């Protein structure tokens, strides 16, 4: 008899008891009797030669060895459950629930949904706008697209897509536009700059990157969302700071201009999902996004 794996039926019962915090709940989930689950636990402990649970009040508590085995069993069973669910759904899979900030959703993701449908019709999405960074559990989401800097939660798988690039943008119709085209960046000191509450340090970061003293810059109107900031700039209300992909089409159409181009920051465009997710479409979406951001 090989002993490189524990008795699998007994391990399944153990994982259910540890996860559900009780023999009765495990028996109900596994559709067996309370006594059958107890026998499986005894079999596993006998095979190991050590206790996995101890009595604690009217219930059970994992021993240190039990906690180690439970962690390993969860790492094995959770992806297996997810993969099995995906396989059972077959070709009619539920859309991936993708969260992203509203500005990315409106100015970058939505304009590319037609391209996604043509190139990857299997990657159907349900898009959800979220303005704050998702919690460590990515509650309610299969994945999240964002511009962020490490560290990231340990439970996330993080797909790096592209380095963030930012730069000043303004409408060519803005009254001061002609004086800035061809001028050095220090000319910005003569103007109050539009800013956003979601990225308050963006101007300072850009200025530092181009060796411009950030203390020479004057901040003007502040907007809650990056989307509103960029619409204000496009409407000729002033000079904004923006990630390049979010304004690339506006620059190409002449709606905005970027007199000094864009510079790299420490942030990245990333697609994040739970490490427990075994959904192959996460990696496929990451690869498509990576190509779309080029």
From TrEMBL:
Keywords, comma-separated and alphabetical: DNA-binding, Transcription, Transcription regulation
Pfam families: HTH_1 (PF00126), LysR_substrate (PF03466)
PROSITE patterns: HTH_LYSR (PS50931)
UniProt family annotation: Belongs to the LysR transcriptional regulatory family.
Protein name: LysR family transcriptional regulator
Transit peptide keyword on record: no
HTH lysR-type domain boundaries: 6-63
Keyword Transcription regulation recorded: yes
Gene3D superfamilies linked to this entry: Periplasmic binding protein-like II (3.40.190.10), Winged helix-like DNA-binding domain superfamily/Winged helix DNA-binding domain (1.10.10.10)
């Amino acid at each position: 008899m090989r002993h490189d794996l524990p008795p699998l039926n007994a391990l399944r019962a153990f994982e259910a008891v540890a996860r559900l915090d009780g023999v009765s709940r495990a028996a109900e989930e596994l559709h067996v009797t309370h006594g059958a689950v107890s026998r499986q636990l005894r079999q596993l402990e006998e095979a190991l030669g050590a206790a996995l649970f101890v009595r604690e009040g009217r219930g059970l508590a994992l021993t240190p060895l039990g906690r180690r085995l439970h962690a390993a069993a969860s790492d094995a069973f959770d992806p297996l459950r997810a993969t099995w669910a995906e396989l059972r759904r077959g070709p009619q899979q539920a859309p991936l629930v993708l969260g992203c900030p509203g500005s990315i959703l409106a100015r970058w993701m939505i304009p590319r949904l037609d391209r996604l449908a043509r190139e990857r019709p299997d990657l159907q999405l349900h898009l959800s706008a979220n303005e704050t960074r998702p919690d460590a559990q990515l509650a309610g989401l299969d994945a999240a697209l964002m511009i962020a800097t490490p560290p990231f939660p340990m439970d996330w798988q993080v797909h790096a897509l592209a380095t963030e690039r930012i730069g000043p943008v303004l409408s060519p119709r803005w009254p001061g536009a002609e004086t800035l085209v061809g001028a050095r960046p220090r000319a910005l000191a003569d103007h109050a700059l539009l800013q956003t509450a979601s990225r308050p340090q963006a101007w300072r970061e850009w200025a530092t990157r181009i060796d411009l003293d950030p203390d020479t810059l004057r901040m003007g109107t502040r907007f809650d969302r990056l989307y509103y900031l960029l619409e204000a700039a496009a409407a000729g209300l002033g000079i904004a700071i923006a990630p390049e992909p979010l304004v690339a089409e506006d620059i190409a159409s002449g709606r905005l201009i970027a007199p000094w181009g864009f510079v790299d920051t420490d942030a990245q465009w990333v697609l994040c999902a739970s490490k427990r997710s075994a959904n192959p479409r996460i990696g496929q979406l990451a690869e498509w996004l990576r190509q779309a951001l080029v």
